[in-house]
Amino acid sequence: MRWLRRISFGQHMLIDLKILANIIEASQISNDEIVCEAGTGNGILTHELCKQAKSVISFELDNLLFSNARKNLFYLSNLNLVNADLFKRYNVDFNVFVSNLPYSKSKDAFYWLPFQRFNRAIIMVQKEFADKLEAAPGEKNYRAISVITQHCFNIQSLFNVDRKAFYPVPTVESVVIRLVPNGSRITRQTIKNVNFMFSQRNKKASSIAKKFGNKFEFGDTRIDKINTKELIKLAESIEFKVCG
């Protein structure tokens, strides 16, 4: 029953040691860096991160998984295990973010990361979700999360991960990506506004801009065909009182 519940939340444990080694290699962690991990899970990735980093802070929300990890990884002196939802914390100090994200937490992670200060992130996500992150204007996967992520980060797909690399075996393929902050900042209100605009994705961008008293001219182009830079500019111009 516990496994069934975890599957429903997209929690599938990495068991492929080759993929594990590839993630560690891609992370390029030095012994003076602090690593933050979302989802300790079975601890297989956590253990390897501790070998590379100065210290690791690993968050696990599931009480049973946390208890097991604490028993199995107690000997790692540079590990700080936390039984909490990382994406509700905004005071975590780290250099590198590494995670085999539960599918249900993917969007939470990408709304949390823009407000953190770090050097790079190596993240395993559902391939369909990765396609949304990298989608261009006009493509069917172009969403609010595409705009927000592309505004804040440089994104690179590193390698695909077969379903058999996990237990239980998921129904979808995964991909490991690298994020590097590009220096662009964003506010929570701008994120809300981008999401609002994409709820109107089939409408003309000019009509939405006009509705809010803005002078942006996009002709007959719909919201989902406008590039990231212009959409962020429009989102930043929308007053809090309109869609806050």
Description of the structure:
There is one protein chain. The chain is of the alpha/beta class and 244 residues long. The protein has two domains: 2-181, Rossmann fold (3-Layer(aba) Sandwich); 188-243. Helix content is 38%, strand content 19%. The chain has eleven helices and nine strands. It has helices at 2-8, 17-27, 44-52, 63-72, 106-112, 127-134, 144-152, 188-198, 205-211, 228-237, 240-243, and strands at 13-14, 34-38, 55-59, 79-82, 96-100, 120-126, 153-161, 166-167, 174-181. The strands form two sheets. It has a seven-stranded mixed sheet. Strands 1-8 form a two-stranded antiparallel ribbon. Helix 7 runs antiparallel to helix 8 and helix 8 packs across helix 10 (228-237). The longest helix is centred in the N-terminal third of the chain and has 11 residues, at 17-27. It is elongated and about 60 Å long. Residues 1-10 and 240-244 have low confidence and may be disordered.
